[in-house]
Amino acid sequence: MKEGDLKAGFLLLMAFIIYYKEVSIMNDIEKLKKIIELNDNIVFFGGAGVSTESDIPDFRSANGVFNVKLNRHFTPEQLVSRTMFVKYPVDFFDFYKKHLVHPNAKPNRAHFYLADLENQGKLKAVITQNIDTLHEQAGSKNVLKLHGSVDSNYCTKCKSFYNLEDFLAKNEEIPSCDKCGGVIKPYVTLYEEELDMAVFNAAINFIERAEVLIIGGTSLSVYPAANLLHYFRGKYLVVINKSSTPQDNMADLVINEKIGEVFSKLEEGLGDV
Fold this sequence. Notes:
This protein is an alpha/beta fold. The chain has 10 helices and 11 strands.
């Protein structure tokens, strides 16, 4: 067989694989569309992949920081830990403001689609591991934030509240309270800290009662949040994520695509993925 024939055969095979994948995804989106149409008690559980489509990178993809004074390298996880906040606050706040706060980010198609589902009365709650405010900006009302929010900050001494704008207006290396001089801490759950159990228990309650649980943009690798899906007793478990997750075998439907693109196709009535 000539080299040209081999190349043509390879290109034909690749075209068939791409076509088959597109048809398969379209069929999966049609299945998801029917699931959503036939059920009125839906809960969404999302992670970093929902926000990355708004150009908010996963902070764990950062390189970390080398501290010259201590002659050691800190990983992203170490930099947003309770230990770092207490012992090395300058490094903590520098990393936090650079990699976890994105005041100019805007909601994407996933955020708007979920807000619309809630407005229709179908979506009962958005449960998110993200700390941004994009769901709220898109119009979602019932948002359970497992890891807190960048928009809430408080003085560790007098408990005075500071929104994100006020917090970012602080030019000190360690932001301090106007009233008492105490350190202002973001109301986010750091590594080594416990989750807000009131929020966590509310999330369990919604998931236990849901007919449909849609998991999107998360690898389900962050605990204890990832344990939430074990409380689901409903009819349909749907996983939408670019890569596979450890819980794919538990799902009734798995779509390995960007969540914003999937929701966009639902709005458009299928079409090309």
